[in-house]
Amino acid sequence: MNQAPTKITFFEWLTPLVASGKKTITIRDESESHYVPGTRVDVHTLEKDKYVCQIDIVSVEKIGFDDINEEHAAQEFIPLEELKPLIREIYPNDEDFYVITYTLVA
Ligand SMILES: CC(=O)Nc1ccn([C@H]2C[C@H](O)[C@@H](CO)O2)c(=O)n1
């Protein structure tokens, strides 16, 4: 049986939003969707693998690209008109994504 992942990376420029508790979701492709609700995960920067903080995974829910909306943007703490192009840039060929909801560990 596969183990639940214990680490997630974010672009360095996004990590202050995660560490402050302002950003409460991330939208990833299938390859990064295997987080398990109820587990605790270490946040690192993607670029330098620097430890940032810990988060608890709340839920992992499948979503289509076209269904990403203002509510997701608010939870991402990124304007929707920036969020959707960013996701397209990271994942140019995907239509199905996963909303990973988490809480910051104090
Ligand atoms: C390896 C990789 O893809 N890392 C990612 C992917 C996405 N993000 C952020 C960017 C947006 O806030 C959301 C939407 O995908 O997640 C990231 O920080 N690192």
UniProtKB/TrEMBL annotation:
Q: Where is the active site?
A: 23 (proton acceptor), 26 (nucleophile), 76 (proton donor)
**Do the record's keywords include Transmembrane helix?**
no
Q: Which residues form a coiled coil?
A: none
Top enzyme class, one word, equals hydrolase
Q: Which UniProt keywords apply?
A: Hydrolase
Name the InterPro entries for this protein.
Answer: AC4CH, ASCH_domain, PUA-like_sf
MF terms from GO for this chain are: hydrolase activity, acting on carbon-nitrogen (but not peptide) bonds, in linear amidines
Its GO CC terms are: cytosol
- Ranges for the ASCH domain? 8-106
> Under which EC number(s) is this enzyme classified?
3.5.1.135
Catalytic reaction list = N(4)-acetylcytidine + H2O = cytidine + acetate + H(+); N(4)-acetyl-2'-deoxycytidine + H2O = 2'-deoxycytidine + acetate + H(+); N(4)-acetylcytosine + H2O = cytosine + acetate + H(+)
Which Pfam family, just one, is annotated for this protein?
ASCH
Its family remark reads: Belongs to the N(4)-acetylcytidine amidohydrolase family.
Q: What role is this protein assigned? A: Catalyzes the hydrolysis of N(4)-acetylcytidine (ac4C).
What is the recorded name of this protein?
A: N(4)-acetylcytidine amidohydrolase
Organism annotation: Grimontia sedimenti
